[in-house]
Amino acid sequence: MHYFKWMQWQVVDTGCKSAEENMRQDALLLEQAHSFSQPILHLYEWEKPSATYGYFNRPEQFLNIGAARDKGLQLARRPTGGGIIFHLWDMAFSVLMPSHRAEFSQNSLENYAFVNKAVLHAVQAFFGDKRPLSLTPEDALALEAPCAHFCMARPTKYDVLLEGKKIVGAAQRKTKAGFLHQGSIALTLPTPGYLTELFSSDRSVQKAMLLYTYPLLGSEASGSQILDAKERLKELLAIHLNEASLKYCP
Asked: What's the domain range around 18?
């Protein structure tokens, strides 16, 4: 595990690990939140194609588990809530905010807003122009009932949007020690053929994901473009989270 100091924030990059190990690392950060003096930006990668799901979600109700196993898709439960999200076309990151910090709020929606405003500015800087990014004012209705169980299949309050589509999704868990915010930035669009096998009996989720996802790199991108985008976004996230915290400094 590598640690880097970044002014108000500490950046922790745990490298490329299994889905279960990445989620275990996040759970451990939340468990130890009381011992950290700084908020933490946790960066990590996936050793295989992965999907994570909220603590109270049951992926076997919505996915073809046999097809997922055949594809080598790793499934792992997150320590936060929220729906199922695929980590094949995104950049995942996590934020750990200790409760003793001034940025921490007892109101969970304020914590969402704090993180996602910083993420919005990071995405804006990535685009390098004045595209009209915004935070979702309220939860959107799901196209069909199953869509409510998938993160990128409908916008929820304080997601980062462009042209009514979702660029960034997130889930949170708050304890007395602090809050853990797990985020996902869409880089390219889901591959239709890949999703078709996973949703063999229901196409509504696949349709909704394509309808509501706005990928930063367009519908397709090369491996080198994705890698470059991730490195740039990691840098921008650290910069703008730090700037958000500076507003709370005396």
From this structure: 2-246
CA-nearest of 111, 98, 82, 68 to 8 is 98
Tell me the CATH number at 138. Answer: 3.30.930.10
Q: DSSP for the chain, please give it.
A: -EEEEETTEEEEEEEEE-HHHHHHHHHHHHHTGGG-SS-EEEEEEESS-EEEE-TT--GGGTS-HHHHHHTT-EEEE-SS-S-BEEESSEEEEEEEEETTSTT--SSHHHHHHHHHHHHHHHHHHHHTS----EE-SSPPPPSSGGGGGBGGGS--TT-EEETTEEEEEEEEEE-SSEEEEEEEEE-SPPPHHHHHHHTTT--HHHHHHHHHB--TT-S---HHHHHHHHHHHHHHHHHHHHHHHHTT--
pLDDT attached to residue 6 = 54
Query: Which regions of the chain are under pLDDT 50?
Result: 1-5
Q: Strand 50-53 to strand 74-77: parallel, antiparallel, or no bridges (unpaired)?
A: parallel
**193: CB partners within 8 A, 6+ apart:** none
Q: What's the number of domains the chain is made of?
A: 1
